[in-house]
Amino acid sequence: MLLKPFQSALILALLTTSTLQGCDHNANLTEQQLIQRAKDFEDKGDLKTGVIELKNALQKNPNSPQARLLLGEIYLKAGMGAEAENELQKAQKLGVRQETIKPLLGEALMLMGKYDRVLAEIQPGDTTSKPNLARIYQMRGEALLRTGKLQEACNLFQQSLDTDTSNPSTYWGLAQCAVANKDMSKAKALLDTALKINDRQAKTWIFIGDLEQLNKNTQGALTAYSSALKIEPDNLEALQNRALINITLGQLDTARRDIESIRKIAPNSLLSKYTQALLAFKQNKYPEARDALQEALQIAPDHLPSLLLSSAVNYALGSYEQTANQLGKVLERTPGNAYALKLLAVTQSKLGQNKQALITLQPLNPEQSNDPQLLALVSGIYLQEQEYTKAKQLLEKAAAIDPKNAAIRTGLGVSLLASGETERALADLGSAAALDSGTGPGARDADTLLILSLIRDKQYDRALLAIAALDKKQPNNPTTYNLRGGAYLGKNDVVNARKSFEQALVIKPDFFPAAENLAQLDIQANNPAAARKRFESILSIDKNNLQAMMALAELASINKQENAYVGWLEKASKAHPEAIPPRAALTQYYLTKNQPQKALALAKEAVNANPNNPGALNLLGATQLTTNDITNAIVTFTKLTRMDEQSPDAYLHLAFAQIANKNLTDARTSLQKALQLQPNRSQTLDTLLRLNLTENKLEAALQIARQIQTLQPKSPLGFDREGDIQTAQKHFPQAIKAYEQALDKGAGSTEFIKLNRVYVLVGKNALAGQLLNAWLKQHPSDNVVRAYAAEYYIFRGQNKEAIAQYQEIQRQSPNNALVLNNLAGLYEREQDNRALATAEQALKLAPDSPAIQDTLGWILVKQGQAPRGLELLSKAVAKAPKVASFRYHHAAALVRTGDKTQARKELEQLLADTQKFPEAEAAKALLKSL
User: Fold this and answer.
1) How many Cβ atoms are within 10 Å of 674's Cβ, its own excluded?
2) Which UniProt keywords apply (predicted)?
3) Which residue, 256, 350, 696, 909, is the most exposed by fewest CB within 10 angstroms?
4) pTM to 2 decimals?
5) pLDDT in tens, 259-279
């Protein structure tokens, strides 16, 4: 076969596995008559019936060498190598000469892809005839060609021609050599010669079709494959090639007929499954394509076309981790495959690995390329990295190469949107939509982006007009109805929004975005059962739909149905072992349930299923870090940096683990590597800043804070960090200014509390109190600041004001055990009779809390219920033996219950251990009294 991007793998089809038994019209035929009938059917190209006739002959005489030999030859024509080998070996055992069998056996081994066996076993003998000698040379040459030894192969093809000029197969081999040397005219002449020798060989026409494809003569290729099929209507290779061309041309009904023929001839073959998948992919029936490809890859796990198509299908389904894994296998065997490189880069970008995506594309030399698609792809990655200048330059170059390309015009619009040039962007997107016919690759991108931009800018009526224009280009498109629903939602027209989303599902019942939008409306209408049915309907169509499973898990979580939540995540993990999100969610669930071993096991499963996936390693490392398995976390993140050397995230996460392990020097090195890869990333800079604070390198920390301010002048982060540093240096006026700037830029409760504390530190208590009141008046639901206010009033001895703050928190968030505990303590100080009941209520909510046990126990002791109080205080001290206040209360309870000896021992030990605590003077006085 002529060199192609991918060679078809072994076809394991079975024309039939049964013989016709008891058929009246065959009952009286002899063995020889049946063999002759088989030959007649073979001559007509009806290989399937020929096989049936030969099996009937073998039923009459299982030891017929002639029937076995002919059956092997027909199996060869059908492309069934294993079956042919089996029959040929039986024929040889029955007495057919080895010299007759040898070339045929070589053809069978070639069909099976066993090229090493061909080279080892199919060799000329002393008595080999010239015709067979030529065939053996040709076959060995073909085996060498398939193993990449072009020159040796071509030498053998020439040797075959020198031996016998009447072997068409020799000309096929020499034609492949001519193609490899880019001499298409010579290849055509060689195939014409083969045709003159025997114009009834389908294989010659197939080679001619392949050559016409290389010459981009699609119609000529179709004609050639059709000529092959006139000779052999059941020729799988010709059917496949013709179907593939028609799929490419969009002639899907024509392609379907050939694919149906393949399915009838070889229903369980690799070829059948692959072509079914390709047709389904072209029809956007991605689940159907995925299922067919899973069967194809079970037959031939390393079949490159199936792997490549499967990666495209998984990308379309959003299974990006599996896409990356499969493309990695493809690129191991075809490192320069442009399509695979582009798809891998897009996938990595989807996974947030933009730096790695740019590295992936380097073999294609994108900066110097004149491929507009590649330029647009790289530009899009730069756009995500917020490198707008580079993105725009590449797109302008692409537009100059292909000025009528709607996708490139769309990209320019996006880059302008990102740069804030909204009106120019909308104009460019409008132009792109006008260029976009709605039928080519990437069709509707411009329209969709224009519509999304208008919706984002709340120009809903303009968006609806743009949607109507898109509807004319692509009628009955679910995406269009989904966009229309979004526009109506923007107008608060829920009725029409719901109708639009429902129409999208009428067109495509498994269209997840519309189902998700309807589910959100159902939830807002307090109808979670209807929302659940939306996703269950998708699963009834596509039983392994990952998005639907994850949505059902989330719905179960919202409804606090833990078993259902875990169940859906486990189903998703089982159906998609390569997917990280379900295992990540399960891991987090078990961490929150304090089951670290289960969490670690799941994270390890993710790595086992995806050993080369950075996301899986990151999940494992993060889980190890959370479970305090810091040593192994460092090992995991180190492996991640080696696997993904250009990922700043990998080095940042390694730094987190090293900081946790107090390897501060190593952490600094990791952070510096991360910053070399991405110099202006605020999270990395902030981590380095906090590392400097830990090591008391305050000036270095301050420099980084101001660097963050320059990089992100609208963000409060840099100003907040400067406030922390100035506070640490006791530069309070500068700290106040920095915190005020952070608040001006949108900082929240934490930064306000920091500012207030600085005012207290400099003695401006009245101002601090005024600011607190003003903040809480403006943010009445801010219970974080309200709790701080309570602490502030306690510090100032204003217990009643503190009580008022805790009471308001309790009103907003009932049954808060900590707030009730603090209230009880304050009631007790103010001799308020609500103290005991409030403490009892807190203990019911948190019976194992030592703080609450101490509060209630002390109240009981002071109210004359010392025995029960002592019991609770003993529990509190057992759980928190280093808390001085708990120990003092326990000792006082011992005194009240008459155990002065033990009380004295405990007080002496307490005062020896701790000199300063709130009740220190009371403890000394109590000891003195004993």
Assistant:
1) 26
2) Repeat, Signal, TPR repeat
3) 696
4) 0.56
5) 888 888 878 777 788 888 888
